[in-house]
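Please, structure for the following, as tokens.
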Amino acid sequence: IPPGERCWRGSATAKACPDLVRALIVGDAPLDAVTWDERLREQHGKLAAWRALSGGALPVEEIERLLLDAPEGDSTLRAIFGEGSPIIHDLAERLYLHDPDMHGMLIEDYDNVAAGYDMETVLPAILCPVLLVQADPSAGGALTDEEVQRALTLLAHPTHKRFSGMDHALLYDPNGPPMMAVNAFLSQLSL
């Protein structure tokens, strides 16, 4: 699922149902429609490929095989994560279950999908604690320093963790420092 889509869903839910959302974690996702649009334009090819793999048309094993040779920056997912990676398997399972029409809407009707996704109005309405997990923008992170600085002033209860040298895939490793920060954030909450 594209990062902006997850952030958009979580932010919209936290804004619309503040009594139901007790915490929000933004995992290196754009916080504003303008930045999200720029990111989607950069990743149009990947989004189109994921659309083709979504929706259960192929078995999870076949999706996983195809993902291994998918380009990621100057490398491939196989080179980054290796054969048999649980990260690739998880992504394959998520794509298998994901509705390809959502990818299609992002490709073909972005303006309507992103309507109202404006950090200046959405973020102040989020009352729960929010963890902003930021990858290094110079290493391919999606969340910009400018967005983070603005979000810290707009959110009621923000926490920010930045991981220098790490790219957008920073939350894929369940034992890595970013996930340790997520676990620490969650353990401090009385959920």
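Residues 3-16 form the longest helix (14 residues). The two ends are 26 Å apart (CA to CA).
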